[in-house]
Amino acid sequence: MGTAPEPDRESAPWWDGLRHHRVVLQRCSACGRARFPPMPSCPWCGSRRVAAFAATGRGTVYSFVTAHQRVSPGYDGDLPYTIATVELEEGPRVLGRVEPPSGVSVGAAVAARFVDHDGWTELRFEIAEAVPAKGPAVAR
Q1: Which one of 15, 81, 127, 139 has the minimum C-beta count within 10 Å?
Q2: How buried is 112 (Cβ within 10 angstroms: 0-12 exposed, 13-18 middle, 19+ buried)?
Q3: What is the pTM of this model?
Q4: What is the residue extent of each domain of the chain?
């Protein structure tokens, strides 16, 4: 499927993380905000100090589109397929295919799934069980 990506200095930890079945994001060492895509400086405070960290790989569907027909010449993959913008628990949004393609909805809980290709690993998501809301337990 496709050609292997060509990582640059900023994106190498992302692609290396995927190869090891981890979602690796950047966190600004100055203001503490997590970000994606990888970049040389913080878009919020401008700091060039950055640290890579492993995210949970869990999130919610922010938006999605389902393709029922080929949208690129030469595409010979499965139809239909769904591509979603996923808001990770850590805050940044990433794109990925969601499986199964049916039953995807805005706000659906998803978890990372990794698909190994020749020379690279693709981030996909699968519908996950809803995670209980965080907060104090209520005695009954």
Answers
A1: 139
A2: buried
A3: 0.85
A4: 12-127
